[in-house]
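Posting for a labmate who doesn't have an account.
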Amino acid sequence: MQIGPNLIYKCPKCGEFIQNGSLISGNTLHAQIYSDAKQIAGMLPEYPNLTKCQKCNEIFWLSDLKKVDAYFPVFLFKDASKNKSNPEWANADYADFLDINDLHRALEMFLDKETVIRRMIWWKFNDRVRKGKDLFIDETDEHFWQQNCNRLLELFDKNDTEQQVMIAELYRNLGQFDNCLEIINGLPDDFNWLKDKFREECSKQNKLVFRLE
């Protein structure tokens, strides 16, 4: 893995500087893959694209903004004097991933990216389980989760194999195990390793996300 420079942007609303890490190269060695198709790889870290300004709370996509500058963090240099970062933005807040409430707000702002944002919400809920926490905080939380899952079932492409797996997973999450198995059993032979794992979890009536490998 090779860390890249920190990229500097400006909030499109208030002009506050925000910085985001980058990666020159990485790999998926020892990556964890989950039933909702999320991959977590220590040697291939993710950096947020959809984020918000910590000063004015504006939500935006960094990919829609013009990069102001870039610099390599001090810890990458043995000689700190080689770091030529501008003091005006060197201490800027780092971009962070949005929480579920902010992602809900983003849905109203970026209707053209509904599928992407709703998948983020789905994964964010499942991250709680990945961390050993409860899936829901309260009934309102559960209602929003269920609404989001049902909408993803409408949005995902049923002719795309990867999205078919996610559709099956959504059915399993909702407790519709027969619908899940119908899709899983129809996948190509290349997915036999995955079919067995889904069948086992369905037989246990497990609705929670689980690790595939």
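Reply:
Got it, the structure tokens are right above this. The CA atoms of residues 177 and 203 lie 8 Å apart.
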